[in-house]
Amino acid sequence: KQEVTQIPAALSVPEGENLVLNCSFTDSAIYNLQWFRQDPGKGLTSLLLIQSSQREQTSGRLNASLDKSSGRSTLYIAASQPGDSATYLCASHAYSGAGSYQLTFGKGTKLSVIP
Amino acid sequence: EAQVTQNPRYLITVTGKKLTVTCSQNMNHEYMSWYRQDPGLGLRQIYYSMNVEVTDKGDVPEGYKVSRKEKRNFPLILESPSPNQTSLYFCASSSSAGGSDTQYFGPGTRLTVL
Q1: Can you tell me the distance from the alpha carbon of A47 to that of B3, in angstroms, rounded to the nearest whole number?
Q2: Which of helix, strand or coil describes residue B96?
Q3: CA torsion, points A107, A112, B3, B6, in degrees to nearest 10?
Q4: What pairs with residue A62 in β-bridges?
Q5: Which H or E run includes A25?
Q6: C-alpha B3: how far from chain center
Q7: What distance in Å separates the CA atoms of residue B57 and residue B66, rounded to the nearest whole number?
Q8: Which residues on chain B are in Cβ contact (under 8 Å) with A31?
Q9: CA A15 → CA A61, A85, B5, distances in Å?
Q10: What is the pLDDT of residues B3-61, one digit of tens each?
Q11: How confident is residue B1, by pLDDT bands cut at 50, 70 and 90?
Q12: Are the C-beta atoms of residues B81 and B17 closer than 8 Å to each other?
C-alpha cells in the first residue's frame, strides 16, 4: 500500500527566502503526483500536477520535480511571501484496479513565511 | 465559475440522527470522491464514483453511504452517525473517469457528532 511522507511537518522562513518542501512515496509505480495548498478552514487548491513521464512542472514562482526511481518529489518556492503561508500537501495517483486511480496524501508541511 | 460546492459547511448533530452532506460540481466531471481529514491521519478516501450509478469503496467506507443518480451530484449519507465520524469532509471531482487527472476540491464540511 502506498505511503506518502512529507518532511518537515512545519517550516518557518523569513520573507524573500527560497525554500524546498519534500515529499517521498514508497511505491514508484505512480501515474502522477499532485501538489496542493490548503489554507486554514478552506479546501484544497491544486498547484501542480506532474505526470510520471515528466521530471518537473513550473507555475509562476513554484517548481515541482519528480524522481520516480528514488520515490521523491520536491516543491520549490522562489522568493517566498507572507501570502504563501499555508499547508502544502503532496498526493500520489496510483492505479487501484477496475479502471480507477487512488490519490494517497501525505500529512502536509505547514509553511509560515515571516514578514 | 467552475467549482465544487458542499452543503452544509458546518454541522453539529447527535449520535444516531441520519444526515446527508451534499456535493455538486458544475464541470461535467466523470469522477467524484469523498475524503475525510483528521489530525495526524491526513486525508483518507471514503467512497468514489466513476460515473452515474457506479460507486466503490475507498479506504474508510464503514458507516457511510453514497449515491450517484446524476452526474453533477454525489451526496454522502451517514445513516447513524457516531462521535468517531467527527471530522472535516471534502468532496472532489476529476474530469477523467478513473480520477487520474487533476482533482478539484470543495470547501469542506466540518461535522461534529455529539
Answers
A1: 16
A2: coil
A3: 60
A4: A59, A77
A5: strand A19-25
A6: 15
A7: 10
A8: 100
A9: 14, 10, 34
A10: 999 999 999 999 999 999 999 999 999 999 999 999 989 899 999 999 999 999 999 99
A11: confident
A12: yes
Measured in degrees and rounded to the nearest 5, phi and psi for residue B78 equal -115, 105
Residue linked to cell 510520471? A52
Q: Do A34 and B107 touch (CB under 8 A)?
A: no
DSSP state of B73: B
Omega before residue A8 within 30° of 0, cis = yes
List the beta bridge partners of residue A104.
A92
Instruction: Tell me the average confidence (pLDDT) per consecutive run of 10 residues in chain A, 115 residues long.
Output: 92 97 92 93 91 93 95 97 97 84 92 97
Which of B45, B99, B107 lies nearest to residue A43, judging by beta carbons?
A: B107
Do the Cβ atoms of B40 and A31 come within 8 Å?
no
User: What is the distance between the alpha carbons of residues B88 and B73, in angstroms, rounded to a whole number?
Assistant: 19
Three-state DSSP class for residue B87? strand
Pairing of strands A109-114, A86-97: antiparallel
- Return the number of other C-beta atoms located less than 10 Å from residue B63's C-beta: 14
Rounded to 5°, the CA angle B92-B63-B79 comes to 95
Residues contacting residue B26 through CB under 8 Å, at least 6 positions apart: B2, B3, B72
Segment B68-85 shows an average pLDDT of 97
A-chain residues near B100 (CB < 8 A)? 31-32, 93, 101
> A34–B102: do the CB atoms touch at under 8 Å?
yes
> For residue B96, what pLDDT is reported?
84
